Amino acid sequence: MNTSLKALKLMIVDDSNIIRRRIERSQQIARLEVVGAACNGREAVDLFRRTQPDVVTMDLTMPEMDGIECVQELVAINPQVLILVVSALADKATAIEAIEKGANGFLCKPFNDRQLNEALEELLSEA
Amino acid sequence: MLKEEEIRTFIEGTTHYFETSAQQAATVGSPYLVTDGKPGAYEYTGVIGITGARKGIVYFTAPRGMLTVLLMRMQETDSSDENIRDLVGEVANTISGNARRDFGKNFVISVPLVIAREPERVTAPHARSYVIPINWRTHSAKLVVCLE
């Protein structure tokens, strides 16, 4: 599976610097190429247009524009994008709402490297 | 009166963070009741406000030393103030997420507020608070549940 991950571009969206850096480090295992990171939904939409990533990790609770709204905007721009929601909002209703708006997977915070990479690989298997 | 399972949800949110992120479990000390409205705080605190079926606050408060080691366990080499604040906010975020999952819409939970280096700003809205010591490695933090 890792071979198929090599060429894909990843954008990280999270208002927490430590989470952005943690995902950046973990992706080296999954061999995704990070093309940018944004700390709110508004910034993410701009970055998405410029970098055209294939895969996005998306926090939900963020200033300016929240993750659910951002998911909708990104999917409107590129319906093929794969979005993994990474959030501490662990309730089922939130996960269902994110999926309904266009996300492809959901990973609960906190997570470890193995959980993140498994979630990414599962996401990419849908591609 | 707080129910035991309500307090357990907040405790599990906290210990789950250590177990998953640091891959090293934290232990829970004996909870105690503070009745003078001053449960106290360390250098860094992540506070969540709660309304709905219960009203009040829940916070996780820890000394910088503990948070720095926790960051290192997460392979984060930058222990800047920004990252320490982020970390305590993420712990509070996890507590909040757990509560939302377990309590549903009966509890309305705010986005975490981080208070750094001003422990005197962390004030309890009610006289009675449950304080749960959270011990990890050689460090001690506190989870404070102050709900009416």
CATH topology-level name of chain B: Chemotaxis protein chec
- Coarse morphology of chain A: globular
Helix-strand topology string of chain B: HEEEEHHEEEE
Second rung of CATH, namely the architecture of chain B: 3-Layer(aba) Sandwich
Determine the fraction of residues in helical runs of chain A and give it as a percent range.
40-55%
Question: Which chain pair shows the most residues in contact?
Answer: A-B, 21 and 25 residues
Low-confidence stretches of chain B: none
Number of strands of chain A: 5
**Residue share in helices of chain B?**
25-40%
Assign the CATH architecture of chain A: 3-Layer(aba) Sandwich
Under CATH at level 1, the class of chain A stands as Alpha Beta
Largest sheet of chain B: 8 strands, antiparallel
Q: What is the arithmetic mean of pLDDT of chain A?
A: 90
CATH 4th-level superfamily of chain B? CheC-like
Instruction: State the secondary-structure class of chain A.
Output: alpha/beta
Average pLDDT reading of chain B: 94
CATH homology superfamily of chain A: Response regulator
Shape verdict of chain B: globular
What is the H-and-E element order of chain A? HEHEHEHEHEH
Could you tell me the radius of gyration of chain A in angstroms?
A: 13 Å
Strand content of chain B: 25-35%
Describe what this molecule looks like in 3D.
The complex is a heterodimer of chains A (127) and B (148). Chain A is of the alpha/beta class and 127 residues long. Chain A has one domain: Rossmann fold. Chain A is 50% helix and 20% strand. Chain A is built from 6 helices and 5 strands. Chain A has helices spanning 2-5, 17-30, 41-51, 67-77, 92-101, 113-125; strands at residues 9-13, 33-38, 55-58, 82-87, 105-108. Chain A has a 5-stranded parallel β-sheet, sandwiched between helices. In chain A, helix 4 (67-77) links the parallel strand 3 and strand 4. The longest helix of chain A has 14 residues, at 17-30. Residues 1-5 of chain A have low confidence and may be disordered. In chain B, strands 1, 2, 3, 4, 5, 6, 7 and 8 form an 8-stranded antiparallel β-sheet that branches. With 148 residues, chain B is of the alpha+beta class.
